[in-house]
Fold this sequence. Notes:
Elements lengths: L7 H26 L3 H12 L3 E2 L2 E2 L5 H13 L1 H11 L11 H16 L4 H15 L5 H16 L5
Antiparallel strand pairs: 1-2
Helix pairs in contact: 1-2, 1-3, 1-5, 3-5, 4-5, 4-7, 5-6, 5-7, 6-7
Amino acid sequence: MTTSTPKPGNQKLAMKSAARLYAVQALFQMEQSGQSTNAVIREFLDHRFGATYDEDEMIDGDIDLFRKVVEDAVNWQASIDQMTDRALVAKWPIARIDPTLRALFRAAGAELTQSNTPPKVVIVEYVQMAQAFFPEGRESSFVNAVLDHMAREARPEAF
């Protein structure tokens, strides 16, 4: 997620989107490397937020949202995974899902269950992320369906 400087009114939204992307990346990294929550948060804040790669500057993320999503995804992982499993086809439990999608479902699940972010915002943000991670595939439709099911379970009053 590179930046051309967002318009002032969009800066806050861009930072929230970046925080969500970084949270998914951090959760993926934790699963792959076994790093602790504190270590991965520290690494992302020190080295990823606003970093420059091949002359492309990465946007700064909303630090509070990033930290909350990562910590809530870890602290509530068992219940988020169970909710995700209920949204998946029985033959495809979360353990069989691509690790990037697993991290995405955990981050989105944390927001759906532990924040006041409107479910539709969560769904749109993470579906767009799935499109970026899997541009050729059908994963974004799959993510949309799973997150819709999770949102209706977590926040039925919003529908």
